[in-house]
Design brief:
This protein has a seven-stranded parallel β-sheet with strand order 3-2-1-4-5-6-7, sandwiched between helices. By secondary structure, the chain is an alpha/beta fold. Helix 1 packs across helix 7, helix 3 runs parallel beside helix 4 and helix 4 packs parallel to helix 5. 37% of the residues lie in helices and 14% in strands. It has a single domain, classed as Rossmann fold (3-Layer(aba) Sandwich), CATH 3.40.50. Helix 2 links the parallel strand 2 and strand 3.
């Protein structure tokens, strides 16, 4: 009988940011391969294709605001209570700062402290807090697996020639925070290996959520930056997340898996 090394059967996952555009596609991959997934997030944005997993108890959504330590503690205590044993934590959640006068300023010379600090908090501080919260459980169970979600702009600088003056630039604090995620992954991998806890990161390239109002000329310029000459589809992250969450990656730690159509390679 052939063994499926990518199987998530009998594995329980806490997945932050699991209702988003990319997060929901990755959650679905875990569900389709047998995982039970607890998703703490502000809003349930799952479409009806997730209904069967909710009814069967394989997908558990509960509303939490992960921008505070108190809420994270409550969410993780609840997740552990429901799942009994957590095998994998996926840190995917990102939350933006509160706008000032209805705007999140991104220009280097006009970004106020509050926007910079709020963006850094939403990109990396929550990842640290969630990691801290799961560690006692993992240590008590003799091990665990953490997957952090990075970004291509944590590896390379944006090419601002393709943005021009009409498309909002990638925020400098977002890029800085995502670069921190990749290094934080390496740090945690080294620090936690002695406890049989693996830590890796998955870094998406350009995966825009294309809608009726999307500037397709910008998408064309962005696509041209990738070796494959197109942007990614959410389901194209499913292989990477399955690899890192499953036993297929049992001898991998401190690794950053890049899914970007070759964009960061030149």
């Amino acid at each position: 009988m052939t063994r499926n090394i990518f199987s998530m059967e009998n594995k329980n996952v806490i997945f932050t940011g699991g209702t988003g555009f990319l997060g929901s596609a990755m959650v679905k991959a875990l569900l389709e391969n047998g995982a039970t997934v607890f998703v703490p997030a502000r809003t349930d944005r799952y479409d009806d294709s997730f209904d069967e997993y909710k009814k069967s108890g394989k997908l558990i959504f509960e509303s939490y605001d992960l921008s505070t330590t108190e809420s994270i503690k409550k969410a993780f205590a609840r997740g552990i209570e429901l799942l009994k044993r957590v095998d994998v934590l996926v840190n995917c959640a990102v939350y933006p700062p509160k706008p000032i006068d209805g705007k999140i300023e991104f220009h280097l010379d006009t970004t106020p402290d509050e926007i910079w600090e709020g963006m850094i908090d939403g990109v990396i501080h929550s990842v640290f807090r969630c990691t801290r919260e799961i560690l006692p459980h993992f240590k008590a169970n003799g091990g665990g697996n953490i997957v952090n979600i990075g970004s291509m702009y944590g590896m390379v600088a944006p090419d601002f020639d393709i943005y021009g003056d009409t498309v909002a630039w990638n925020h400098p604090a977002y890029s800085t925070g995502k670069a921190g995620i990749i290094q934080y992954t390496r740090y945690c991998a080294s620090a936690l290996a002695r406890h049989n806890i693996r830590v890796n990161s998955l870094t998406p390239g350009a995966f825009p959520n294309i809608g009726p109002n999307t500037d397709m000329e910008f998408i064309g310029r962005l696509s041209a930056k990738a070796m494959l000459k197109r942007t990614g589809k959410p389901e194209e992250l499913q292989g990477g997340i399955l690899l890192l969450c499953s036993d297929a990656s049992s001898y991998m730690t401190g690794t950053n898996i890049v899914v970007d159509g070759g964009l960061t390679q030149w």
